[in-house]
Each structure stands twice: as structure tokens, then as C-alpha cells.
Amino acid sequence: MGVTTFNEEYTSPIAPKRIFKASIVDSHNLIPKLMPQAIKSIEITQGNGGAGSIKQINFAEGSHFGSLKYQIDELNEETYTYNYTLIEGGALTENLEKITYEVKFEPTPEGGSVSKVTSKYYTKGDFSLKEEDIKAGKEKVVGMYKVVEAYLIENPNAYA
Known about the structure:
Number of helices: 3
Strand order of the largest sheet: 1-7-6-5-4-3-2
Radius of gyration: 16 Å
Order of helices and strands: EHHEEEEEEH
Low-confidence stretches: none
Helix content: 25-40%
Structural class: alpha+beta
């Protein structure tokens, strides 16, 4: 088994508290409303939404994937830290055992935030993963993040 790690950073004019609440804590309610063409629903299938919980994302008809499940490993609203593990569906293939994500939102001097994301792909056997193999998935995540950001800009009292 090998591990391939990717680090990304995204900046936003939205403060960490608001973007964290909207895109992470309340994602199961907000994301399907903002992106019904892509995401049919997000359900908490086990737990209360905190650490140890399992969420299932059900994609809209015509999507490449039907659904995916992930386990929340850490959700800290004080430090704006969110860690989770993809455990079923989505990008998991016969060559990937699991994918873990570590997300942390940090404040910027201008009042916005920097989102730091570390993704670790645990491969099976001799399989080697290249960045271009995961580019489409990363672009979808960034797209979703930008939709939430635009919503928060248009609705300055939401998640305040």
C-alpha cells in the first residue's frame, strides 16, 4: 500500500466561522439547495453529524457516481478543523483503499479565510496515483466551495 498526499489552499473573502458553518457544519442542508442539479441530497446515516458520524451524498440523476459515503473523523467548530474519510463510492476504485481529507480554515488579515486541504490517497498494491488522475474531483470540490462562497456574499446575514 502506498500513500499519495496532495496539499491545496483556497482563499475566500468570507470569514472562517461563516464559511465553516455553511460549507461543513450545515452542508447537508445548504449544498443540495444551492446545487440541486449536482447533488440530490446529503444524509446523516449514522450519528448526529459530529465526529464518528457517517454522511451519504446522493448525486443527481445522470451523475458519474450514484452516491458516496464518508466518515467524519473530526469536526471542531472552535479551530475550524474538519477531517473525514471517504469510505464508499465516489472516487474509490479497485486501486484505492480509502481517501482521507484534512480541512482547516484560517483567518486572513483582510477578514477572509484561507482553506488548507490535505488529501491522502491510500492505494492498493503497486498502483501509482498522479495528480491529473484526481484533477476532476478537486475541480468539483472547488466549484462547490465557490457556490457556497457566492451565496454567503449575496446573503451577508446567513451563518453570521
